[in-house]
Design brief:
The complex is a heterodimer.
Chain A lengths: L3 E6 L2 E6 L4 H7 L23 E4 L6 E2 L10 E3 L3 H17 L14 H8 L16 E2 L5 E4 L8 H10 L4 E4 L6 E4 L16 H5 L5 E3 L12 H12 L2
Chain B lengths: L3 E7 L5 H7 L4 H8 E5 L12 E7 L2 E3 H13 E7 L1 H5 L11 H11 L15 E6 L9 E3 L6 H12 L14
Parallel strand pairs in B: 1-2, 1-3, 3-5, 5-7
Antiparallel strand pairs in B: 4-6
The chains are: A alpha+beta, B alpha/beta.
The complex binds iron/sulfur cluster (2 copies) and FE2/S2 (inorganic) cluster.
Chain lengths: 236, 176
């Protein structure tokens, strides 16, 4: 039995198990912190910075999904400052690559698009980057469109932690970061890929999709991933 | 009460936003009772007039002509509304932004042409290097995203503006 810790979330005293993250404890206590790279059943990456929270006594914002709770911790999940930083993080995701929602296979079913709507983002205040990126169609069943990738690494983690194949990695650094399969070979030539499709289901955007889907046709079932993860936890 | 002066402008877009504006159906009658539409594809005026209260702009800024138009519209209008994703993000027109203008024109008018190969120069405005959102070149007072924004969102915006308020769109709209 793990140790119990007491923390305050938005002033409310909450009990949590040692090792739980702020995100988990906040969610268990009815808070909804925005998140993109977090996915139930996978390890946390802290890649998107949407889940930033304030922790009393700490002079910078911390990602709720990677920060474990400590006894006596006091966390704020909603404030003007947080809203400001979350919106900024979201806007920067939009300008980094090419998100043309109107012609995207995931239009209407995309977590990035939905979060922008939820946070009331009607425009982006920064100049768009308009990078020239490739689309990998070499896999017989799936497509990787780098234009829509937000580098959340959910695909990397689901493939490694649930499927056990570890096809994906993120290569390079900063603005040059790029999702690669099998040491940067075309996906279709990957020797590790089992074509299970978990990465496609886990991907929050229109970056990993099934072939043959037209605009608005790509719906995802990430419950597949969370259910599998939960079953494995139950039978270790 | 003096009627408000409303203008619309169509830059690099597909006219879908204007279609969505027309999709407010009979509600347009109530709108024109409160406002005169003084310029736009829906009316006859040749010149963008001065002293416009609300200018609603569809499309990205893609050519020299678009650029001159939007600057004039900004000077002559009190409130400038960017209507739809092209005006706000560049959207579909911006998909050319990764390529050189010369490359695109050659691809279409030389490689892609069966007859009369050659890049047209007469009577067509010069393309800018990229198709860009309005806010890159002028101050925008309100953004109404969508491809197109729904008729109900447009009607809400019109009514709020005609009531003298800048509407709070909240979660009524989204990209795409
Ligand atoms: S991935 Fe999402 S945000 Fe990006 S273009 Fe597609 S629908 Fe829009
Ligand atoms: S392909 Fe999808 S899941 Fe993978 S990093 Fe990009 S956005 Fe995330
Ligand atoms: S959800 Fe925590 S950083 Fe992405």
């Amino acid at each position: 039995m793990s140790q119990q810790v007491s923390v305050r979330i938005d002033g409310e005293l909450c009990t949590a198990a040692e090792g739980q993250t702020i995100y988990e404890v906040a969610q268990a206590n009815g808070r909804s912190i925005p998140a993109l790279c977090h996915m139930e059943g996978l390890s946390s990456a802290g890649a998107c910075r949407l889940c930033l929270v304030e922790v009393a006594g700490i002079g910078r914002l911390l990602p709720a999904c990677t920060t474990p709770v400590n006894t006596g911790m006091s966390v704020t999940t909603e404030s003007e400052n947080l809203a400001h930083h979350r919106v900024m993080a979201l806007e920067l995701l939009f300008v980094e690559r090419n998100h043309i929602c109107s012609v995207c296979v995931s239009n209407g079913h995309c977590e990035l698009q939905a979060l922008a709507q939820k946070l009331g983002v009607t425009h982006v205040r920064y100049p768009y980057n308009y990078p020239r990126l490739s689309v990998d169609t070499s896999h017989p069943r799936f497509v990787l469109d780098h234009n829509r990738c937000i580098l959340c690494s959910r695909c990397v983690r689901v493939c490694d932690e649930i499927e056990g194949a570890h096809v994906w990695d993120i290569a390079a650094r900063g603005i040059n970061s790029m999702l690669v399969s099998d040491l940067d070979r075309p996906w279709g030539e990957s020797e590790n890929c089992t074509s299970c499709g978990k990465c496609v289901q886990a991907c929050p955007t229109g970056a990993l999709v099934e072939k043959g889907r037209a605009v608005e046709e790509m719906t995802k079932r990430n419950v597949v991933v969370t259910t599998l993860a939960a079953k494995r936890d139950a039978h270790p | 009460m003096k009627k408000a002066r409303l203008a619309t402008l169509w830059l690099d877009g597909c006219s879908g936003c204007h279609m969505s504006l027309l999709d407010i159906d009979e509600a347009i009658i109530a709108v024109v009772q409160r406002a005169d539409i003084v310029y736009g594809p829906l009316v006859d005026a040749q010149e963008f007039p001065v002293d416009v209260d609300v200018a609603i702009v569809e499309g990205a800024v893609s050519s020299q002509d678009d650029l001159e138009k939007i600057k004039r519209v900004r000077e002559r209008s009190r409130i400038l509304v960017a209507l739809g994703d092209c005006a706000i993000t560049g959207n579909v027109p911006s998909m050319r932004n990764r390529f050189l203008v010369k490359t695109i024109l050659e691809r279409v008018y030389v490689e892609g042409a069966d007859a009369q190969k050659g890049i047209p120069t007469d009577g067509v405005p010069t393309l800018l290097k990229q198709a860009i959102p309005l806010q890159d070149v002028v101050k925008v007072d309100l953004h109404v995203p969508g491809c197109p924004p729904s008729a109900s969102a447009i009607l809400f915006v019109l009514n709020e503006l005609l009531d003298g308020r800048i509407p709070d769109l909240g979660t009524k709209v989204r990209f795409g």
